[in-house]
Amino acid sequence: MFRRIDADEDRAAVTPFTWEGDAFVGWAGDTVAAALLGAGIRVTRTHPTTHEGRAPYCMMGACYECLVEIDGAPNRQACQVLLQPGMAIAPQRGARR
Questions:
Q1: Is 68 helix (H, G, I), strand (E, B) or coil?
Q2: Per residue in 27-68, pLDDT tens?
């Protein structure tokens, strides 16, 4: 299970975002994938043919398992995008467009 190893949480560094319209917070400097995992969100996209849930895997941009839609733009690798305040994030459903 994913958990943060930071001992001290800097409340000033909290970064708000939404996932499918629900409000969450991450930390400044998080990637979108790290913020999602830290918020307890495990499935970020569905497989294009089996429709099974997929999740961030390699966390370095090689596997494309973490594709999400960010502010209406599809095909974004969550592990490669830094979280910004107010991001509207949604799962990538089906094949990449």
A1: strand
A2: 888 999 999 999 999 999 999 899 999 999 999 999 999 999
Burial of 95 from C-beta contacts in 10 A (0-12 / 13-18 / 19+) = exposed
Which structure tokens are listed for 45?
């996209």
8 Å CB contact between 81 and 28: no
Query: CA-CA distances (angstroms) from residue 56 to 9, 10, 90?
Result: 23, 25, 14
Do the Cβ atoms of 54 and 46 come closer than 8 Å?
Answer: yes
pTM: 0.87
Task: Using pLDDT thresholds of 50, 70 and 90, give the confidence band for residue 74.
Answer: very high
Sign of CA dihedral 70, 71, 75, 80: negative
